[in-house]
């Protein structure tokens, strides 16, 4: 990673690679204002709104950069620390993003997906928007401020990642076929998703009926046994059928047998080589 060179006693200008930060980050005077607490908006609405916009973009960009839409104030203070100074304005920014629905408490975001279409529609279109109002924001308030350890989900980032994942799934011809969680992670390993970020994206897509997920019986949390079926564009994700499940199991059995045969052949070759060396 590229870093700005500093003296032995100087505080670093960058925590992440330098290319992540905007040019403004190197301006001491401007950053002094941006890192400070917000003043009352009525004093200078234009500067207030500009500062708010700057930090909202920084938070969204950071979530995209790390490959996960979940973030906390504690994490942001660490990442946006500049020359030993943390941003003192994040409480105000996060509270505003919560009010605007740009951030959602992780627990609220990951509520269980409704099984039926009717239940899903009511939950997504009626209950959740109401639940994400300021009443929910107040639940995250601790001692007059936002709980700095609480995780929030940047909805715009998760939606963008969902679109990117759907495009990748379509490109790899994995629509309407069964895919294990392990297989999906292997598929996206070079696409910038973290495991945590992928979890949020899949939950969002399940709420949108873009993917159907199923844990096979008696397998606990083993990712190898979580099956996914992505819907075609414009269609709703459909439950996995018994036939699809049987075909998947047969394919997995075939792959396991081929691996066993390959290992046996390697063992035989190794044994023959050892015999020849000792003749």
UniProtKB/TrEMBL annotation:
Top-level taxon of origin: Eukaryota
Protein name per the record: Charged multivesicular body protein 7
Organism field: Culex pipiens
